[in-house]
Amino acid sequence: MHDIRLIRDNPAAFDAGLARRGLEPLSAAILDEDARWRSVSTSLQEGLARRNEASKAIGAAMGKGDSATAEALKAEVAALKTRLPELEAEEKALAEAIRDRLAAIPNLPAPDVPEGADESGNVEAHHWGEPRSFNFAAQDHADFGPALGLDFEAAAAISGARFAALRGQMARLHRAIAQFMLDQQTGTNDYEEVNPPLLVRDDAVFGTGQLPKFAEDLFRTTTGHWLIPTAEVSLTNLVREQILPESALPLRFTALTPCFRSEAGAAGRDTRGFIRQHQFEKVELVSICTPDQAADEHAHMVASAQAILEALGLPYRRMLLCTGDMGFSAAKTFDLEVWLPSQGVYREISSISTCGDFQARRMNTRYRPEGEKGTRFVHTLNGSGLAVGRTLVAVLENYQNADGSVTVPDVLVPYMGGLTELTPR
RNA sequence: GGAGAGGUGGCUGAGUGGUCGAAAGCACCGCACUCGAAAUGCGGCGUGCCGGCAACGGUACCGUGGGUUCGAAUCCCACCCUCUCCGCCA
């Protein structure tokens, strides 16, 4: 949610930011509506002031037993009452229209975000590890996975396309990856573990920015709840409508949760394999902090996610997303992309964004700066640390052997009860 | 799911339809007293929006949204949430 005052103060800068996102200028239309709202609002307030004044006088007159004056004043206020409801309705409609308009505008990119129309404009910022050279043709996990317990057919019979069942060693490896990640994030990386609600209300999803524009990407229950598409929703909204003491910041949260995405519009993309599912698990990282802390928190979050890939020995690169590839709420995003040998490409496995006060405004989350009076909006950041399903895919493909077995990465062996290899049946 | 009770400022907690944005206490801030501190005394102490350079003025907010009224924290309706008891249940 944008601050209308910033748009009033510097409409050109606002439109320039939109232009970097590839959007038409909107400030003129917004400010026009804003001017009308202020005019109506002022008239309304003047009317209310007159009404309040007269009502007080009526009270005073009645207190003195002067019913003649009271009745005269009542008649006067009654006349006002025909106009006030109209003004009220008009004011409300305009305020709502402005809010709806602002709520649908994405965050503006940070100054150091490169301009670009789509993912081809992203810039590599860092890479780690060398893709392993295979002495056989690296296979696709969708091909050798089923013999190791990755069951697409049974899941399709139960739930349809884009679902999978993990069985035996495969289920164990998936769990091992998730537990390892969660232990790292809660331990060395200092995030507080949270087990949050997976079903959430409109307000929460609005707060992080998935609503109102992206309802079709979400699942909704018959009770009106939404299934979270990412724990970012639950974790960030943990502080919604709160005023936090500055000393409490930064707050760092992590959660291992299922995520549910309808994948509307993704028909035909990544239909094979475990890459794009309606349901997947992810270890999410969220930071709630002051504006001054945000850059460091972003760096810490990036490092926390990268550390997982490095511990697992998975080659990756870090991309600075360009303006055209960033999500709705983000001001600046790094994606981590892991090497998938079967496809010979790097695939997104983590996305780490700083959102400025964009989400904080939508959630009304503020803090009290020490030594200042009043409150300011917090900054929020979120990132995957990491997506469990895609990490499973990366481990399978990077650690596959010619005989269809998969070597368990060293750090996961303790989580596998000592099992060092997945063997085909 | 059924029955009941309740949602008021950072917290506790008053509030008769009419100077109630709201008593009081606690907490907090400033000042005084003190060598210093405690105790005590005095003063201050909510948020949003609009106007104003500012001082300040106006307006809204007592769970949320409607309604009644000249006027609603107070009356009416709906919803949300919390607590207690019963039922069901991992």
Explained architecture:
This protein has 425 residues and is of the alpha+beta class. The protein folds into two domains: 4-103, Orthogonal Bundle (Helix Hairpins), CATH 1.10.287.40; 119-422, BirA Bifunctional Protein, domain 2. 40% of the residues lie in helices and 19% in strands. The protein is built from twelve helices and 17 strands. It has helices spanning 4-9, 11-20, 27-63, 67-103, 141-144, 152-159, 169-186, 202-208, 231-236, 294-311, 358-363, 388-398, and strands at 123-128, 150-151, 165-166, 192-193, 199-200, 226-227, 243-245, 251-260, 279-289, 316-320, 332-340, 345-354, 366-368, 376-377, 379-387, 406-407, 421-422. The strands form five sheets. It has an eight-stranded mixed β-sheet. A hairpin with a 4-residue loop joins strand 11 and strand 12 (345-354). Helix 3 packs antiparallel against helix 4 (67-103) and helix 7 (169-186) packs across helix 12 (388-398). The longest helix is centred in the first third of the chain and has 37 residues, at 27-63. The model has no long low-confidence stretch (mean pLDDT 92). The chain binds one RNA strand of 90 nucleotides through helix 3 and helix 4.
Rg (CA only) = 27 Å
| Main sheet: strand order | 1-10-11-12-15-9-8-4
Mean pLDDT: 92
| Annotated CATH topology of the largest domain | BirA Bifunctional Protein, domain 2
The CATH architecture category of the largest domain equals 2-Layer Sandwich
The named CATH superfamily of the largest domain: Bira Bifunctional Protein, Domain 2
Q: Can you tell me the overall shape?
A: elongated
Helix share, percent: 25-40%
What proportion strand? 15-25%
The poorly predicted ranges are none
Q: How many beta-strand runs?
A: 17
For the record, the count of structural domains works out to 2
